[in-house]
Amino acid sequence: MDFVRGQFPQTRMRRNRWDDWSRRMVSENRLSADDFIWPVFVIEGDNAREPVPSMPGVERLSIDLLCAAVAEARDLGIPAVALFPNVDPSLKTPDAREAWNPDNLVCRAVRAVRAAVPDIGVMCDVALDPFNSDGHDGIVRDGEIVNDETIEALVKQTLAQADAGSQVAAPSDMMDGRVGAMRRALDAAGHQNVRIMAYSAKYASAFYGPFRDAVGSGGALKGDKKTYQLDPANTDEALHEVALDLAEGADMVMVKPGLPYLDVLRRVKDAFGVPTFVYNVSGEYAMLRAAGDNGWLDYERVVLESLMAFKRAGADGILTYSAVDAARALRRG
Ligand code: PBG
Fold first, then answer.
1. Alpha helix (H) ranges present in the chain?
2. pLDDT band at 1 (very low <50, low <70, confident <90, very high)
């Protein structure tokens, strides 16, 4: 290997590791609260909180408690939150029309958070699954998830969220052509500064299970999402998806899930050099949390090590349910 510059005993790799000051001096990556986006689940009600059984430590919050929690995240230096609604099953329909109701739960949550905590970024998922009686991200016709009709629905959803004050639209639906349609509609409506963070390389993953419990979409879901989400076997296809989303106007791109897809993250960052995010998804959180709660792993330390792995693999930011825990740990030092 031509990067070996010397040999033992002249070269001793342990010298730089010998003291804390010296390890800090040669450290190549640094994790900070600025790297985190905190996903939060919202429910109806006042002063209401519900634990998510498959995500110990995570609670669904009513809008008042959400505002308090977001203020705490802001105080810890976390730059943005992503809001996910747990929608009453009676509002779910095959056309998912509740998704663009300007007074739906997530739009009300956005307005409340923007008013209560103006100096934190607010991001919303663009996908129909929380509102769809079929549990899919798109509209289902004769057992198929139809692309172009879904785009029209997604555009309406994007505009409702932006009108409510959402600053980042994050399409997680994996329909073809949605980023361009969203960008054109946002610009036409005067929302030129609403950013698009595209879930560009989103895989058909079993690691989303706890999230579907949290938003209550899992029970409704018929079949799987393999006709729109990526095959875990593929990485060239992920680069193709990222290229298309950038061409359509995405400001930021995302790889999801996180820990099992660090190779994809590194390839995306190297190939495009654009703001690249990663979603440390619900199943990844559940694994570390469960092992921690059982005393098998030190939760805080494995979280910080995992988040550092994302930085090392090229992430500019990380969506993580551990954002507040990690920001507190970093503050303590
Ligand atoms: C919905 C959506 C999912 C996640 C974010 N947005 C689940 C899915 O596609 O089924 C997963 C998040 C997580 O597991 O933490 N489009």
1. 20-26, 63-75, 105-116, 147-164, 178-188, 209-215, 236-247, 262-272, 282-293, 299-312, 323-332
2. low
Residue 12 in any domain: the answer is: no
Q: Whole-structure pTM over 0.90, yes or no?
A: yes
pLDDT at 18: 98
Q: Which of 86, 161, 281 to mutate to test the pocket of ligand 1 (most atoms within 8 A of CB)?
A: 281
- Give the domain extent around 184: 28-332
User: Which candidate, 170, 179, 178, 107, places its Cα nearest to that of 149?
Assistant: 178
Distance, in Å, from the CA atom of 252 to the CA atom of 246, rounded to the nearest integer, reads 8
Give the pLDDT confidence score for residue 6 in this predicted structure.
87
Residue 302: burial class (beta carbons within 10 Å; 0-12, 13-18, 19+) = middle
- In terms of phi and psi (left: phi > 0; alpha: psi -120 to 50; beta: otherwise), the region of 199 is beta
**How many domains, the chain?**
1
Any domain includes 87: yes
Residue 48 pLDDT class (50, 70, 90 cuts): very high
Pairwise CA distance, residues 9 & 7, whole Å = 6
Q: Is 311 a catalytic site residue?
A: no
Report how far ligand 1's centroid is from the alpha carbon of 1 (Å): 42
Given a contact cutoff of 8 angstroms between Cβ atoms, the answer to whether 49 and 42 are in contact is no
Q: Which of 202, 225, 269, 311 is catalytic?
A: 202
Distance 257 CA to ligand 1 centre (A): 9
CATH number at residue 105: 3.20.20.70
Residue 6, in any domain of the structure: no
Do the domain assignments include residue 221?
Answer: yes
The percentage of residues in the chain with a pLDDT greater than 90, rounded to a whole number, is 96
